[in-house]
Amino acid sequence: VAGIGNIYSDEILWASNIHPLTIVSRIPESKIKTLWKNTKILLTKGIDFGGDSMSDYRNIDGLRGQFQYHHKAYRQKNKPCPKKGCKGSIERIVVGGRSTHYCPIHQILI
Ligand SMILES: [Zn+2]
Question: What pLDDT score does 58 carry?
């Protein structure tokens, strides 16, 4: 989705079990639905936590957002994948000049 930042795209793909290099046309219908659901959930979550503030962003209360403490993939390189039952660890690759974090075990390239 255009305009979705690195943080959200890493988190959404991680939650949806989709490899960051997946060609969109190869994603099955059922996964597209999951993808949309997770996009909505995560964007809402980001707002609920007061925004994301890896940088200097402050919300209206002058506080840093809390979403960065809930990242599952973004900037979690070499950390164990927090997905239930998954024994992978998060890896970092560069896709189109952007750094991307994913789990090679449950985010399989199809
Ligand atoms: Zn995993």
Answer: 57
| Statement: residue 70 has pLDDT above 80 | no
Residues that place a CB less than 5 A from ion ligand 1 = 81, 83, 86, 88, 103, 105-106
Ligand 1 center to 53 CA (angstroms)? 24
pTM given for the model: 0.80
56 Cα: distance to centroid of ligand 1 (angstroms): 30
Reduce the secondary structure of the chain to three states and give it as a string. Answer: CCCCCHHHHHHHHHHCCCCCCCCHHHCCHHHHHHHHHHHHHHHHHHHHCCCCCCCCCCCCCCCCCCHHHHCCCCCCCCCECCCCCCCCECEEEEECCEEEEECCCCCCCC
